[in-house]
Design a protein that fits this description.
heterodimer, A: 328 residues, mainly alpha, MetI-like fold, 2 domains, two-stranded antiparallel sheet, 75% helix, flat, B: 279 residues, alpha/beta, Rossmann fold, six-stranded mixed beta sheet, four-stranded antiparallel beta sheet, 12 helices, 24% strand, disordered N terminus
Chain lengths: 328, 279
């Protein structure tokens, strides 16, 4: 029936331009092309609008502080003196702490789930992990306030001080809130991303790779660590950068546990501030155009940081691929 | 790396990396036909499903034994029992005996066994490392410390690949063509100087010219290696092997000298298969 209809349409002699166009659309190719093109163009449009708007609205602050904005350590609304340094520092330090904890933890879990755990257990656990990734960040903030902060104040902090107190990283007073606490909460938040993505990548390593190593007399661990993990390293790095992007931009949970004090301190116990949390905290209360403009410029800085770090990540991936790269 | 040296090694690895040129004298018996692998009453199960039924086969030293049969007849499964590679698949079970130089392989240390029984797979599977590191991998993993360069060169020469890659050893193995990759995999397997080389349809992903190179290579390797090859290609079995075993539905139907099996098969099923009436 439908075949007959199609044949009939095809047999109709050349017709008006509109009819021809409609017939062409029926094929689906043009429509699919148009829809996907619009979607792709939309992404570029949104990104450019975002940058443009941040650039435009931060005009006041950019004109007044210039490049000095990046390394001014003062953030004083009363005297209209604003600098981004403490926030950039806070953002980088908390993200670095988060990755330092989350990468080994996540990779080890992913290796266990993909290589050692029975398949059924692995599937159940990774379902739970995917659920963890969907928990709203304010919940993690509460977890931080009620569990990590007291733990840091009473147990973890003093213990670290005892063992590593001689380094500037763990010196100074410990209030429970600060860079380290924020880093730990961030680590808990991003570890599901690392586990989930890395596990998938490890599971997709061809069976032949594993067998090639085993066939040569490698032990199971040697095959995993020397062959399977290197094969998956691009994907694993991808998961790490996904985690980094999340950590850099995380707002709510960090605000709740970092102490919200714009200062640069070598000690991880000290309270700090991050770009995302200062924007969230102060945007509604910002009085004066310059104050508002400075906050928006902070947003631009965060955008730039994410952009640069992602670029570096790409370069790193390309660099490690060289000399032993596998086909894309 | 030390984990390997920590486990008990089979007697042969006491003097590792035998010189293949002189190996003939030390390992081959002067008798007419010494047997490297002897398989007796071998059954193999994937869960409840049996894939190999009561198989008996002798694989003679320094000869090529081909395993032919239609898809799914269990020839690859059988080959993979010879280096206990099937143990990596969950829920499998093996019964019966496999003797390597008279020693039961299931009582050996599996790592040591696999060093003595190398394997080349259906699709070339080089590691995502340089050409050099691919060949050196087996040596490193077996705790070999010494002149790696020399052994890498020797292995690549044995795999007839040296001339083509000697200037690009640091390049990624994936830059090679399919046939070169497969010869690299053979070189990698040869690096640890195995007594037996198992080839699981090594040419199925290669073109005829490259296939001919691999067959030529197998011919040269006969001096130092015992080979068992699974193949779909009956011409290949006829060209490259000394003995041929025909399998059907997990059972060994016929096993004899290759020329005899292809010209005057005794079993009607063998005849039907080699004349192309099924499979």
């Amino acid at each position: 029936m439908s075949a007959a209809t199609t044949t009939m349409t095809r047999e109709v002699p050349p017709k008006s331009g509109l009819r021809a166009f409609v017939d062409k659309l029926k094929g689906g190719d043009e429509i699919a092309h148009l829809i996907t093109l619009t979607a792709a163009a939309g992404i570029i449009l949104i990104t450019s609008l975002l940058v443009l708007e941040l650039w435009r609205t931060s005009q006041l602050s950019r004109a007044k502080f210039g490049w000095m904005f990046f390394w001014t350590k003062v953030w004083d609304a009363n005297f209209d003196n604003f600098g981004a340094a403490p926030f950039i520092y806070g953002t980088l330090v908390t993200s670095a702490v988060a990755l330092a904890i989350a990468v080994p933890l996540g990779l080890a879990s992913a290796i266990f789930l993909s290589e050692l755990a029975p398949r059924r257990l692995s599937d159940i656990v990774s379902f739970l992990i995917d659920l963890l990734a969907a928990v709203p960040s304010v919940i993690y903030g509460l977890l931080g306030i009620f569990i990590v902060v007291p733990l840091m104040r009473t147990t973890l902090g003093p213990a670290l001080k005892k063992v590593l107190g001689f380094t500037p990283l763990f010196a100074g007073p410990n209030y429970g809130v600060g860079f380290l606490t924020a880093g730990i909460v961030l680590a808990i938040m991003v570890v599901p991303f690392i586990i989930s993505v890395s596990r998938e990548v490890l599971l997709s390593v061809p069976r032949e790779q594993r067998e090639a190593a085993l066939a040569m007399g490698a032990t199971r661990w040697e095959a995993t660590w020397q062959v399977v993990v290197p094969w998956a390293r691009t994907g694993i790095m991808g998961s790490v950068f996904l985690a980094l992007a999340r950590a850099l931009g995380e707002t709510m949970a960090v605000t709740m546990v970092i102490g919200n004090n714009p200062q640069i301190s070598a000690s991880l116990f000290a309270p700090g501030y991050t770009i995302a949390s200062v924007i969230a905290n102060e945007f509604t209360e910002a009085t004066g155009d310059l104050y508002l403009s400075a906050l928006i410029e902070l947003g631009l800085v965060l955008f730039l940081m994410t952009f640069i770090l992602n670029g570096l990540a790409r370069i790193l991936i390309v660099a490690t691929e060289r000399g032993g790269g596998r086909p894309a | 790396m030390d984990s390997v040296s920590g486990v008990p090694q089979p007697a042969l690895s006491v003097k590792p990396f035998r010189d293949p040129v002189h190996m003939e004298k030390t390992t081959t018996q002067p008798t007419e036909q010494s047997i490297r692998l002897e398989i007796a009453d071998l059954n193999f199960f994937y869960g409840p499903k049996q894939a190999v039924f009561g198989l008996n086969l002798k694989i003679p030293t320094h000869k090529v034994t081909a395993l032919i049969g239609p898809s799914g007849c269990g020839k690859s499964t059988f080959l993979r029992t010879l280096n206990r590679m099937n143990e990596t698949i969950r829920n499998t079970r093996v019964e019966g005996k496999v003797l390597l130089d008279g020693q039961e392989i299931h009582q050996m240390d599996v790592v040591g066994l696999r060093r003595r029984v190398g394997m080349v797979f259906q699709r070339p599977n080089p590691f995502p490392k340089s050409i050099y590191e691919n060949v050196a991998y087996g040596l490193r993993v077996n705790g070999f410390k010494g002149r790696l360069d020399e052994l890498v060169e020797k292995s690549l020469r044995r795999a007839a690949l040296w001339e083509e890659v000697k200037d690009v050893l640091k390049r990624s193995a994936f830059a090679l063509s399919g046939g070169q990759q497969q010869r690299l995999c053979i070189a990698r397997a040869l690096a640890v100087d195995p007594e037996v080389l198992l080839l699981d349809e090594p040419c199925s992903a290669l073109d005829p010219v490259t296939t001919a190179k691999i067959e030529e290579l197998m011919f040269q390797l006969k001096d130092s290696c015992t080979m068992a090859i699974v193949t779909h290609n009956m011409q290949q079995a006829a060209r490259a092997s000394d003995f041929t075993a025909f399998m059907l539905d997990g059972k060994l139907i016929e096993h004899s000298v290759t020329s005899k099996l292809f010209t005057t098969p005794t079993d009607p099923r063998t005849e039907a298969y080699i004349t192309g009436r099924f499979g």
